[in-house]
Amino acid sequence: MYNAEGRTGLSLAYILNPTAGLTLGAIVLISFILGILHGTTPDEHTWPITFSYAVGSYSTSKGMKAGFVFSAGFTLQRAFLTTLGFLGLAAIYKAYNLDGPVYVIVGIVMAIAGAYILNKKIDLHLPLDRLFGSKRHTVKAERSPMHDVPVRMAFVHGLIAGWGFGAYATIITFILAPQVPGLLYAPIPGLFFGLGTMMMQIIFGAIFANVARIKRLTEQQIRFIGRRTAGRTLFYGGFIFSIIGLLIVFFPVIDNWAISTGNPIPNLDSIGVATMLVLIVVGIFGIGNVILSFYEIMKNKATKRPGNGLSRRN
Which of 131, 231, 276, 288 is deepest in the core (most CB within 10 A)? Predict the structure, then answer.
């Protein structure tokens, strides 16, 4: 391998713009490094999902498991995607923008998982009244027990989110995959890209899982914050994903709006719709609900009110 200056070795510019004639070993290495970059940078297909499931698990090991399970589904899909790239069938991405439909489907699955955690019935009573400050929801509904976070759903999320397409997917699908020796090797770029992503998502899963471990809270209070945050982040974040997805479907130009940052690394090179999704779902709904849940606990402690949502049912 030669970098842009003709010297043997790897540079960031070379990894992001690999040439033709690569060996299988070089393809594996570049794919893995690209996966690490993808898992490290704020991507709308990874961070919101990993955060939601990890913070709801309220322990380091379970947070790592959440990152692993999500990335396992994502890795499987990427291996299939690079196989399509080798066969030339991934050309559909050059003709159609699938970001909108993927956002919609991911959003629906997020909302369903969030509804389950918050113990909302199948005939979903959409809590839009809370958004507008209404008190029409009943006390019984407010105090209904929350369920454990369904980490297995993260695998489904990984399978779906993997269909999102960006700069990293373009490199492994259209540049690296066609260079493998044969069809048998076609899943390899996607596999190692997914493994690189998985490594970083496991690390971030452990970090996200400890967001709720602030101050000196009991295990019961940490579980309450984790479940409440995961449920609300998935539920409301799912609506945001679906709304943005529908807007992109009907107004595709929205997906191209972006402000350049001058950084060459994908996901850090511009501020656009994807960046805003990460900020809204992880920043506002995620971190915001951790803070709100914490102050709810502190307020109920100060007033010594019963029914603070920290009963054993929650």
Answer: 231
